[in-house]
Amino acid sequence: MNPWSVQTLVPLPVLVPLFAAGLALALHRYERAQRIISVTALSVVVAAAAGLLVAARDAPVVIDVGGWAAPVGVNLVADPLAALMLLVSGVVLLCVLLYSMAQGIADGGGRAAPAVQDSEAIRRILEAQDPDADEARRRGVLPVAIFHPTYLILAAGVADAFLAGDLFNLFVGFEILLAASYVLLTLGGTVERIRAGSVYVVVALLSSIIFLLAVGLTYAATGTVNMAQLAERLPDVEPGIRLGIQALLLLAFGIKAAIFPLSAWLPDSYPTAPAPVTAVFAGLLTKVGVYAILRTQTLLFPRNEVVEVVLLVLALATMLVGILGAVAQDDVKRLLSFTLVSHIGYMIFGVALATAASTAAAIFYVVHHITVQTALFLVVGLVERRTGTTSLERLGGLAALAPGLAVLFFVPTMNLAGVPPLSGFLGKVGLLEAGVLDGSALAWVLVTGSVVTSLLTLYAVIRAWNKAFWQPAPEDFRPPDETRLPWGMIGPTAALVGIGVALTVVAGPLYDYAEHAANVVMGDAVYVDAVFPDGAPRGTGESDDVTSEEGGP
Amino acid sequence: MTVLDTVPSAALLLAVGVLFATGVYLLLERSLTRVLLGFMLLGNGVNLAILVAGGRAGAPPITGPDTGTEPMSDPLAQAMILTAIVITLALVAFVLAMAYRSWQLHGHDEVQDDLEDTRIAQLAERDAPSYADSDALESRVTLDEEAATVRDEVALPDPGPRRRPISPTDGGGGDT
């Protein structure tokens, strides 16, 4: 095989950030080197993902890691869905990284955090304690700058979860990104972040255990964890056992995706993190959960009416409960966290209908929502930098104070609420159309619920817009005199807002691609053929006796 | 190649059940240390369950190239368990560090309630709007300020002579 075929691109989004993370950790004394490494690594990821997006259009690109063929070995599969998600997540990760570098999070934590955390502050304390110590000794006790390495590991975990060709590798991908997210969420270890972090970490640990149990049970029932092989074997498993495995997987992913009864942890924990971290969590981490649901429900399990009805009801509850929560909030970050929960409901709606049209709409909606939600959190970070607060109680008159900021806020909020002709509107129309085509009573209820949620979203964000930007400022509102926001922060934010708008312009081709991706995911044959080209497991490490022994019900 | 008996061992299944029951019980506690212990028990329970899925014990997972007829355990299950153990170890280390930091800050490692959530719930009880419009002003403290002054329900009356909690509390212990 030619060593430089298109398959070379597949492992790059995982490997490059991992190696870069190690390098950045080794060079933690040199901030400039860390920055160059991180930006280069994520740029390579974006480029590789773009290449895969084109290559996967014809057929999924498969690679056997370490030369062990599936199903015994681990394989990475870049089908159109995975490639699309990789590209969007890569772009978002890169933009947020640039933003965070300008914000100055890289060497410590949020600037308003009370605890001592950046290296400069610690250096000052050390100087006061021991004025005679030489510089070298003082450098020895400085904390390691961990933001860049952790962020890169998060990127690697996200990519691994998207590319995973077997359930266990999906689990490992989740663990990589979750472990990195624990560190990022509790960065600096302040009172508020440790409190929020405790809840987040415990909930995530529980969901990981459930996921691992589901993987174990799948292995016990089918003798494999390879997704392509599972797609062939799971339909033969006894329906009761299959439903149990499906429910466990849904439970584990439901916690990660923040579906209604399992969503309470999200608005509690996300807003306390530094703005860029919240942005990337809100944009990506829940969508990885949605992606996992989409992948397993469509590829592995045959259609099951009970599961579909349960998912539809949960989608409705997620939408309505989430958006009603958002209406009650007076902190913009928390308001946005609640809209995030609410809009996860749209994607679950699309997955639950389980038709090619609804899945395509869900995929389009995921892409739209990643960019818009991240952009909104970045804008709120700008508002916080400009005024020192995100509480609607205190904000006011920002439209006059910072007109550019107002535009940056207004465009993605309208996009989120689904005002035509922006991409949020197109995604919602796709979902509504799929719901109407389904035609069942429950689907009609969902269609109505979606429209109500969309209107309530508009209400919630317009309230925030009115209070923070449009109304005159409260008398005691004293924004700091610092009038210039750093261009390094504005640039990436504007870029993401622009990408959100551009999604509207390229909506035609993008929707076509989403439909193609949905067809690949829905039709098992394409995926399975790509992994097992001759209709049979191609490995040399295959143990026929064991698999045939355990394969049946 | 002969395949081992795939009927699971009752003793192992019972052990899985006990580990899960105790793990879930500990996970429901508020103290991070107990939650951590519960997580470790659960993790071991799951690992044991995967081992059971791999067939009965008694044969090596790796055999030489020319021992074709020798019984062999399923190496894949064991490989997955090894990976899971490594991951669990790393997470346990992180949670320990977090529990220690929580103890540094508060003098205990119990998970706190979400203040903002409580505040919004109180607003709902009073049927008050979540924020006033600009013509109906009433100065308020931020979440951070409120967090600094709120009474800590679970703070120890005296966190000990060696180290005092950094977060300001009113000493706690009283009931309101």
Structure write-up:
The complex is a heterodimer of chains A (553) and B (176). Chain A contains 23 helices and two strands. Chain A has one domain (7-106, 142-534). Chain A has a two-stranded antiparallel ribbon with strand order 1-2. In chain A, 61% of the residues are buried. Chain A is mainly α. Residues 106-118 and 538-553 of chain A have low confidence and may be disordered. Chain B is mainly α and 176 residues long. Chain B has a domain at 1-57 and 73-107: Orthogonal Bundle (Helix Hairpins). Chain B contains five helices and no strands. In chain B, α1 packs antiparallel against α2 (32-53) and α2 runs antiparallel to α3. The longest helix of chain B is centred in the middle third of the chain and has 32 residues, at 75-106. Chain B is elongated and about 80 Å long. The termini of chain B are far apart. The interface between A and B is large, with 58 and 53 residues.
Task: Give a short synopsis of this structure.
The complex is a heterodimer of chains A (553) and B (176). Chain A has one domain. In chain A, 73% of the residues lie in helices and 1% in strands.
How many domains of chain A?
1
Fraction in beta strands of chain A: under 5%
Structural class of chain A: mainly alpha
Q: What global shape of chain A is seen? A: globular
| String of helices and strands of chain B | HHHHH
How large is the count of helical segments of chain B?
5
Number of strands of chain B: 0
Helix content of chain B: 40-55%
Largest interface: A-B, 58 and 53 residues
Fill in the CATH topology of the domain at 1-57 and 73-107 in chain B: Helix Hairpins
CATH class of the domain at 1-57 and 73-107 in chain B: Mainly Alpha
What characterizes the major β-sheet of chain B? Answer: none
Domain NADH:quinone oxidoreductase/Mrp antiporter transmembrane (chain A): 164-453
Pfam family, one (chain A): Proton_antipo_M
GO molecular function (chain A): NADH dehydrogenase (ubiquinone) activity
Subcellular location (chain A): Cell membrane; Membrane
